[in-house]
Amino acid sequence: MTSQLEAAEPAAQAAGPGDERPTRRGTLQYALSKAGGALFSIAMVIVGTFFVFRLLPGDPVRNLAQGRNMTPEQLDLERHRLGLDKPLIDQFFQFVGDTLRLDLGTSYEYKRPVLDMIGERIGPTLLLAGTGLVIAVSLGIWQGTRAGWRHGSRFDRFSTGASLVLWSVPTFWLGLLLMMVFGVGIGPIPGVLPFRGIESVDAPDGFAYFIDVGSHMVLPCLTLVAVVYAQYLLVMRSSLLEEVSQDYVTVARAKGLRDDEVRRRHAVPNALLPTVTLVFMRIGFVVGGAVTVETIFTWPGLGQLFYEAISVPDFTLMQGTFMLITVAVIVMNTLADVVYRMLDPRVRSA
């Protein structure tokens, strides 16, 4: 990025400081256009969410009545209470109106407001998925930088190969394998790590409680990191390989700068730009957690809540959690576009 800014500096000085205002105005217009596109996408999500979940097989009223001898009249009363006896178009307009008022409805299964249930589950999800994201990004950028700068080395071949293997492994299979080895244990070797829930039944108080929660996070967090960090490694490695061949890197080396300084001060800042976009995109998915990982390890987050809603099926709970996840992804993607334009002068001049 340093080289591009230095190249653009003479033109900016020739044009004068007054030309900064059009640039800022262009960035604002770009941000507003992206925000408008995001609002349109959210509107489409609201419409699509209602109809898509109505296509799922199964009658929620009959599923709720399992284990209870309910007469057809009682089933009709329950269907009326849930509003499922109304015409589909009436249900749709009521759904849209409630959503605009931030009323996500009441869960069929739990008889509780969906928004309250989401509020209870979002904390564990942010703890697990957020921690996994930080570790995956840090590990991926570090390995990608070393692999790209020393292209063809043993470290490059090993780290790239290992990350691709882990990326191709199904998440549920890796989670079950880690659970079997480190949780349940193999043969006479006992498991050493907890693998169910977020805390022990007899969880201690004080600092020991954080240790207990941390021990429960190890296996699900390791599963998350193992299957996603390859994305950051590969993007960072590819981006750095492109920057190494640029003229400004050759000039920096010709000036006598040390190899570490050329990498740290010139090549890496430019190579980070695509990775920044990927990180923002992944932040949106952090809100939704990881359905597979949370289900395997019974982690009480939004992913597990969404799985429970599908199992019933609970239309209102599915709609609420799905919309939250989708809106978070749309917002983060929009923010990534704006931030990338602000960071990279080449995008602003395009």
From TrEMBL:
Q: Which spans does this entry mark as compositional bias, Low complexity?
A: 1-17
**Membrane topology label:** Multi-pass membrane protein
Q: Which Gene3D superfamilies match?
A: MetI-like (1.10.3720.10)
One GO biological process term is: transmembrane transport
Where found, per UniProt? Answer: Cell membrane
The ranges of region (Disordered) come to 1-24
Q: Name one Pfam family in it.
A: BPD_transp_1
- Recite the UniProt keywords alphabetically: Cell membrane, Membrane, Transmembrane, Transmembrane helix, Transport
Q: Which family does it belong to?
A: Belongs to the binding-protein-dependent transport system permease family.
PANTHER family referenced in this protein's UniProt entry, alphabetically = OLIGOPEPTIDE TRANSPORT SYSTEM PERMEASE PROTEIN (PTHR43376)
Write the protein's name: ABC transporter permease subunit
Which organism does this record belong to?
Nonomuraea phyllanthi
Identify the taxonomic lineage of the organism of origin: Bacteria, Bacillati, Actinomycetota, Actinomycetes, Streptosporangiales
